[in-house]
Amino acid sequence: MLKNKRILLGISGGIAAYKTPELVRLFKKSGAEVQVVCTPSALQFVTLKTLSVVSERPALVDFFDEETGSWNHHVNLGLWADAMVIAPCGSNTLSKIVSGQCDNLLLTTYLSARCPVWVAPAMDLDMYMHPSVQEHLQTIQNRGLHLIDAEIGPLASGLEGKGRMAEPEHIVQALNQFFEVPNNGWKNKKVLVTAGPTFEAIDPVRFIGNRSSGLMGIEIVKALSEKGAEVHLVMGPSSLPVPEGIETVHVESAQEMLEACQTLFPKCDVGIFSAAVSDYRVEEVHLEKVKKTNENWTLNLIKNPDILKTLSLTRLPHQKCIGFALETHNSEEYAKRKLEEKQLDAIVLNEVGENSGFQSKNNSVKIFTKNNQQFASDVRSKCDIANILLEKLDDWKILE
Ligand code: CTP
Questions:
Q1: What is the pLDDT of residues 310-340, one digit of tens each?
Q2: How far is the CA of 362 from the centre of ligand 1 (A)?
Q3: How many angstroms separate the alpha carbon of residue 323 from the centre of ligand 1?
Q4: How many CB atoms lie within 10 A of CB 169?
Q5: Which of 15, 51, 74, 119 is most buried as measured by Cβ atoms within 10 A of its Cβ?
Q6: Which sequence spans correspond to the domains of the chain?
């Protein structure tokens, strides 16, 4: 659940800091990125070098790097993170968190963080039970911070009781629980998504393409990933950035897209084919730029393979195929014909219109399934449409 999550680990001074390299290692093992920020007194118990090595990033303690003069910008650190964990959090840091003091990088970063924050207190048992500490622990929870309560056991003082920092495994568990995706039909499914246009070369500088931006496919990829699916994206030439952490194969032509899909689809449970594939390619691709010597130029176009149809007709019984149909007229009839001819489980009809379709941030779709279920959406953002599509397919049990 912590895969690709960005975790800011704030370490304050206390003997439990010696356990933090192990905590970093466990976060990293779960696939998270970790940025360590220490208070100066934490460095009496653990070294910056150790933390930098295990986190694979320079661990920070100063506002300025004396050698390079660069500023360790607490606002950027705070905005970067998906989660902040303060472990161990001693009584001094706890009270400064409550009062909003900011005399070190950890505290300024905490005040700038917009992400959820976890606090794992660690102190001796009498300090821990002191009314002021207990009040502070209550206050931070009232403010929405998550408490990972101290554990009972032998303490550095030689006494025994409550005050030990929660074991690193328990801290990781607390974050895992928070980020766990609720059960749904897409969770742990392996899904292939095609997106964007394809470009068919005429010569080294010219091509035949279409106006697809690839945004619908990218929103589907994001929604799938939020629902806990393992996504494989095959992306035609698009100027949009691919969502972080998504395994992506970039292709240009329909033929390249077919080859990438043929490699990936056998290991997937579902294919969602949102790419606007060029139906034709140029028969003779010129290796050098064609000069404009003639008044007319006729290109001979030949049909590209239908990627969706090829994969749908050869799929394994458990695999599902969801297609798209882009139409300007007789839309429902054409979409339903494609659903049948390509033997799909469902088809998403995109009617080219003023408020929807290519190049637009919004879209409205109609969904038809092989079991005659259907749904028509309003004009919504492509992000909303992606979520509606996935929820409908799940509700209709298309994935089973
Ligand atoms: N598709 C594909 N390979 C192609 C053409 C289309 O995989 N060579 C897929 C698209 O990704 C989409 C579906 O087939 O999911 C329908 O695409 P669309 O362009 O609407 O229809 P076509 O089948 O190409 O038919 P036509 O252009 O005649 O409407």
A1: 999 999 999 999 999 999 899 999 999 999 9
A2: 21
A3: 8
A4: 11
A5: 51
A6: 6-179, 190-395
